[in-house]
Amino acid sequence: MTVDTFIPNDTKIHHDERIIIITGPNYSGKSIYIKQVALIVFLSHIGSFVPADAATVGLTDRIFCATGSKLMTAEQSTFMIDLHQVGLMLRQATSRSLCLLDEFGKGTLTEDGVGILGGTVNYFVACDDPPKVLMSTHLTELFNDGCLPKSEKVKFFTMSLLRPDNNSTDVKDIVFLYRLVPGRALHSYGVPEEVIKRAAFILDTVGSSDYVERLCNENLSAQDQLNKDTVDRMLEFDVFKGSSSNRYLGIWYYKVPEKTVVWVANRNDPIIGSSGFLFINQHGNLVLYGNDDQKLPVWSTDVSVEEDDSCEAQLLDSGNLIMVTKRSSSIIWQSFDHPTNTLLPGMKLGLDRKLGIDRFLTSWRSADDPGTGDFSLRINPNGLPGVFLYNGTKPIARSLPWPWRSHMSLYNRAFVNDPDEIYTIYTVSDDSYLLRIIADHSGHSKALSWRQSDGQWKDYWKTPQFQCDYYGLCGAYSTCEVAHPSEFVCACLPGFEPKYQEKWSVRDGSGGCVRRASVCDHGEGFVKIENYCLPDTSNAAWVDKSKSRADCELECKRNCSCSAYSIIGIPGKGDACLTWYRELGLLANGQEVAVKRLSRSSGQGTEEFKNEVMVIAKLQHRNLVKLLGYCIQNEEQMLIYEYLPNKSLDWFLFDETRKLLLDWPKRFDIIVGIARGILYLHQDSRLRIIHRDLKCSNILLDAEMNPKISDFGMAKIFEGNQTEDRTRRVVGTYGYMSPEYVVFGNFSVKSDVFSFGVMLLEIVWELWRQDKALEIVDPSLNELYSPREALELIRIGLLCVQEDAMDRPSMLAVVFMLSSETEIPSPKQPAFLFKEPHNNPDIALSVEDGLCSVNQS
């Protein structure tokens, strides 16, 4: 028989038998037959000649093909092509469509290929009005009665052949007749028996279950093993529908009647409509596309693996979605590191200082919109750490600080605070319950429990629940107590009175209380307050975990900043001394202020003090600290500033925990704010002022993290058109001072530019590695930054620290570069030595002849 010989075959697909499965060995003519049917349908619909004795072809709206591809496109395996093609078919095919599946699922005989094969067949069989389906396979043993649901819709055919030996399964011993006959092939020729058995087992599992069970349970971490739930509470990873036509990829409890989503991948980038495509690319990333053309990724795990390795995704029974490398079985990404609004058992809430990860919960926008909402639940690592609920940046409720906590019988909670991590974690002690903690869109944090007998989620606890649960309801120096519904819950501490009496009279205590009189009138002492919750411990610290009450009081008296103390009983560890520190005071009108007390060892004398008062008093700018007053009495000198609660920039930058709170947008805004403040000093104010001591510790941050330049004790006022000056007394901080100022005593506006460049680089980078610019970006940003912006800032910083002052830009040019898309000049390599000796008899420093800079040719 020649290759060109045409073998005619009858085809009958009617309403009752719409799914035809054709079995037979490879090369028996199955593929040719399916293509012939498709061609005849196509010719009929375009009005062309149909090569048949008789033909009745019903209206067909579309022909879908899942036949693989001989051209293996980049990054796609045969299985991925099958998955893409059948995805279109299952979503778009109608009862008038013709679906062709040729050796479908043959790309692999593992769970993937066989699972998609069985799942597709079962889907078509379960349809009330399925499309017309022609499917071919050489795995005939898979389609026995045990692997398929009973249905009159399915009709089996096989490609007839001759076998000299009826017991032979060798394809070499058969003769192909290329004729379609009813029935099934007897064997899957050429496929080992053990492969058939394994595939049949997989298909049976897929076909008989309501879910695709995860068959592999290896590579579980110790914590996942500890929190491994039973199959009855296993979670599901799939697409769900939100508001309108938006769709999201998420994880939820599939056996809880009310759909309860616990994690969302693309919460802020929904898939619009029914399109979407999820796969693992060649870099090992799990990627979700918003449509089938794979051009618009809406979410990705954003990881990478070595070229000779690959990844697989696993949903652990704890609800943790992980990406595991196949070669080393190491977890390179997990959803537990990227929580949305839900904290599950075994999930950490807090900071990983080593990895630069801040794990916190953020609420949904609404009950059916999982986008990032206004409320967040996170650990405040300052002082004695505690869990806070925020509305934006404003705290609205807090938990008791560790280690004091109310007893919870349903779950066990632990807290870890070491150099590497600070987090809280919980496990459920009663196996009959499900428990989850959420940041709710209503503005509450809740613990919700569910068990089979209840059949619904119930509030285990909720905060804020009562009036006094709200953070700062009664303001500073007050107590909150619900004694009687008709009485006001707020009361001032002994020796204090309402700050705003008129508001207090209408039961608004948010302004807090102020002292009735000076604390110096009756000596120094403490008032005992009993049976109240501890105040905010963000400004508290352990003095000693073994001090007595008297020792604790004495320790607090020794420190002028200490405002209160408490003896706390730690469960299982005895008593401990806890003290509160404040760096602020109160004016007569109740305004909070910061007091700068001049240290005798600071080197700043009376002249510097007066200079700072005069300079700041004449300046008004949002990026300069505001001076409210000053005090000189004998040798005591104090400046009264506006209170800036977030302290100084160095307090964040050089602390492994707090630096995590400075994300990329905050850092960029801080850089721009500092630049605008310096520009005001140099050009826009009534005076031209050279600060001479710009450094991170002199940049203060307000409640919204806006930077404000402070400490003008070393500042110099230039008159008229003066642009530079020289001094014999070099003051400032080494590392921030420009080379010409340190060595020669010359200073100008470009000296401040140099200091700004050092600060900019400190904000952006941590290490310098030659020719690897992005590797110097502070690792605490954890790649959550714009590479283009980072490179531009580094370039601006290097321009500012040029050896020659003439090569440095002005602050006006710096602000322009920061706020526009203009091309930034390439800087010269930073210098460490100087080009030529400079003979200045007024400077008590000398420079040896012959030294040169790295820029000198």
UniProtKB/TrEMBL annotation:
Record's keyword terms, sorted: ATP-binding, Cell membrane, Chromosome, Disulfide bond, DNA-binding, Glycoprotein, Kinase, Meiosis, Membrane, Nucleotide-binding, Nucleus, Serine/threonine-protein kinase, Signal, Transferase
Membrane topology field: Single-pass type I membrane protein
Start and end residues of each Protein kinase domain: 565-832
Transmembrane stretches, start-end: none
Protein location: Cell membrane; Chromosome; Nucleus
GO cellular component: chromosome; nucleus; plasma membrane
Reaction catalysis annotation: L-seryl-[protein] + ATP = O-phospho-L-seryl-[protein] + ADP + H(+); L-threonyl-[protein] + ATP = O-phospho-L-threonyl-[protein] + ADP + H(+)
PROSITE patterns assigned: BULB_LECTIN, DNA_MISMATCH_REPAIR_2, PAN, PROTEIN_KINASE_DOM, PROTEIN_KINASE_ST
Sequence ranges assigned to domain Bulb-type lectin in this UniProt record: 211-336
Residue ranges occupied by any Apple domain in the UniProt entry: 520-599
Coiled coil stretches, renumbered: none
Origin superkingdom: Eukaryota
EC number annotated for this UniProt entry: 2.7.11.1
Signal peptide: none
Biological process terms in GO annotation: chiasma assembly; mismatch repair; recognition of pollen
GO MF, any single term: protein serine/threonine kinase activity
Protein name: DNA mismatch repair protein MSH5
